[in-house]
Design a protein that fits this description.
The chain is an all-alpha fold. Helix content is 64%, strand content 0%. The protein contains nine helices and no strands. Helix 4 packs across helix 9. The two termini are 26 Å apart.
Length: 182
C-alpha cells in the first residue's frame, strides 16, 4: 500500500487528469506512480515534461539500459517493474538484455559503456573519476551525449526516490528479486 496519499482518478483536477490520460494512452493504463504524483500537479508536470524531453536524447534502448541500471542501483522495485515492462513491451528488449542492463551492462558495447557510466554517476553521486569519463568517451560518446546520459540517470533517480519513499503497490508485471542483479 502506498505511503503517500493517492487521489482517485475521479478526484484529479482537469489539468493533471489530461496528463494522466496521455500517460494512459501511451501505456494502456495509468501507473499508480503517476496517480500519486498527480496529487501535486506541478510535480506531475515536471516529471512528465522531463520524461518527454529526455525521450529525444540518445536512442530508446540506451535510455532503457540506463533506467534499468539506475533503478537496480537504487533497488526500486516499482521502477524496475515499470522499466522492465516498457523495455520489453515497447523497446523490444529480451530478458537477457534486461538482466544485463540491470547489472549495468549490455550486449552492445556502446550501451554497456553508457550503463556503466550511469551507474558510476549514481554510485559516486556524480563524483566520477577521469577514468570513468574517459571510458564513456572512448565508447564514442561526445560531451553532449555524456550530459544526456547524466540527465537520463537523474530522471530515473527522481522516480526511484519518489517510489522508494512511497512504496506503491506494483500495478505492472513485477520483476523477480530486485536485488538479484547489481
Amino acid at each position: 500500500m502506498s505511503r503517500l496519499n493517492t487521489p482517485s482518478l475521479e478526484d484529479v483536477p482537469a489539468g493533471p487528469r489530461q496528463i494522466l490520460d496521455k500517460v494512459g494512452g501511451t501505456l494502456g493504463f495509468v501507473p499508480a506512480m503517476f496517480t500519486t504524483i498527480a496529487s501535486n500537479p506541478a510535480v506531475l508536470e515536471a516529471v512528465t515534461t522531463l520524461q518527454s524531453t529526455m525521450s529525444r536524447v540518445l536512442d530508446a534502448k540506451t535510455r532503457h539500459v540506463i533506467a534499468l541500471a539506475v533503478s537496480q542501483a537504487n533497488e526500486c522495485a516499482y521502477c524496475l517493474a515499470m522499466h522492465t515492462y516498457v523495455s520489453s513491451e515497447y523497446g523490444g528488449m529480451s530478458g537477457e538484455e534486461i538482466e544485463l542492463a540491470r547489472a549495468g551492462s549490455s550486449t552492445d558495447p556502446r550501451r554497456a559503456a553508457a550503463a556503466r557510466f550511469a551507474r558510476r554517476v549514481v554510485d559516486t553521486r556524480g563524483q566520477v573519476s577521469d577514468g570513468d569519463l574517459a571510458a564513456v568517451r572512448d565508447a564514442g560518446y561526445t560531451d553532449p551525449d555524456v550530459l544526456a546520459i547524466i540527465t537520463v540517470a537523474v530522471q530515473a533517480l527522481l522516480t526511484n526516490f519518489i517510489n522508494n519513499v512511497n512504496q506503491p503497490e506494483i500495478d505492472i508485471p513485477a520483476v523477480d528479486s530486485v536485488g538479484s542483479s547489481s
